[in-house]
Specification:
The protein has about 240 residues and is of the alpha+beta class. Helices cover about 25% and strands about 15% of the residues. The protein folds into two domains: about 20-115 and about 170-235, no CATH class; about 120-150, no CATH class. Helix 6 (about 215-225) runs antiparallel to helix 7 (about 230-235). The longest helix has 11 residues, at about 215-225. Residues about 1-15 and about 110-115 have low confidence and may be disordered. This is DUF674 domain-containing protein. InterPro entries: DUF674.
Amino acid sequence: MATADSDSNSSNTNTTSVSMKLLVDSTRGKVLFAEASKDVVDFLFTLLSLPVGTVIRLLSKDGMVGSLGKLYESVENLDDTYLQPNLNKNMLLEPKATVAGANILPLLTNDVDSNAKKFYMCSYCSNRSISNVHGTRCPDCNHGHMSNEVTYVSPAPTVARPSEGGYVKGVVTYMVMDDLEVKPMSTISSIAMLNKFNVKEVGALEEKVVNLGMEEGLKLLKASLETSTVLTKVFLGNKKA
């Protein structure tokens, strides 16, 4: 399933989008499973690598289930006077996730770019300390802040087999269950799933191609914390899911 770009005329500045094909049981209003590409699976696996602070920020603290939203708000409201000298509040509020599937993160937000590694040196002294958090107080002179950006140079690629990036290989199609369980897809596995769901009327099955953009990505993230019927809730609008 190929990666698809969203309409260039769209008002959404984030144009990253991938698609997957749902197999829907129309009689029960339920997604049985989805046929997904490497890009979709990389995105789903990337959800596991997101720091809690990033998840709360993406979903908004007021929409969080439980008390983590209040904990996040406490850090936001806490005066810097009470923080350790070398601590920047954004280390907790906007933690950086360095992940192999970072190229899929724009599905959630266009300001999360884990591929862009930035480091900073003190703007006041000539020490050799560096920080990956802009504005951190210099531990050497204790006067300046780490604000002079230095360039990160990636190691030269080896001559070995080139990597696709992400988490999984792109030579196969994957099956994503309603509860986000992921497994390689085959004809046998598809038939086994139909038997598992006791599908008697093949005519009741419908295929539905859906796109995953920023809006859908956030809905998937939120639904994955609330229900075991994620695909049904997000793409069929099943309020009971």
